[in-house]
Amino acid sequence: MDGRSFMACCVLMAGGAATALGQTSTPGLVIGRDDFTTLRWVAGSWKGTAEHQPAIYEHYVFEDDSTLMVQSYSDSHLKNLHGTTRYALRNHRVIASGDGATWLAVKLDSSSIEFTPLTGTKTTFSWKEENPDRFVAVTTWPPTVDVPARTVTYHMSRTSRK
């Protein structure tokens, strides 16, 4: 058994032992409560524009110190709810879930966060604050048999701090 095979075997056995003990191991970034609160800059209502895409309208609210709820609307008055995604800090991981999909935070700093898919989707996405009233939201879809990979970049402008 070469060194790589041995390491892979050790990793698999450690994962199996953790599962047998009732522990689950989600790869990704270890995030503390203080780290999660650095995302407070995103709280409020936003309008997003992207080339060749309809405008999007979203409202971001912290339900508590470990849960961010994002509601997406099809209208600027935030009346026609299109979907909800929850970003929850649990067991030192941030998991986003909504519309049958889940994502894991893999990078976080004071002005940005990046997510990779876990279940129900193959898209990745990120947010990057430009200033207190603007951020960039980037979503990337991998290629499929019929469709090439694509990326959409939304320029988000704050419409309300509430």
Rg (CA only): 18 Å
Number of DSSP helical runs: 2
Proportion of helical residues: 10-25%
Q: What is the 3D shape? A: globular
Task: Describe the strand arrangement of the main beta sheet, using strand numbers.
Answer: 1-2-3-4-5-6-7-8-9-10
Give the CA-CA distance, first to last residue.
Answer: 59 Å
- Mean of residue pLDDT? 87
Give the class from helix and strand content and strand pairing: mainly beta
How many beta-strand runs? Answer: 10
SSE ordering: HHEEEEEEEEEE
- Residue fraction in strands: over 45%
The biggest sheet, with number of strands, parallel, antiparallel or mixed sense and barrel status, is: 10 strands, antiparallel, barrel
Give the low-confidence spans. Answer: 1-25
Give an overview of the whole structure.
The chain has 162 residues and is mainly β. The chain contains two helices and ten strands; from the N terminus they run H-H-E-E-E-E-E-E-E-E-E-E. Strand 3 and strand 4 form a beta hairpin. The protein starts with a helix and ends with a strand. The model is unreliable at 1-25 (pLDDT under 50).
Keywords:
single chain, 10 strands, 10-stranded antiparallel barrel, disordered N terminus, 14% helix, 162 residues, mainly beta
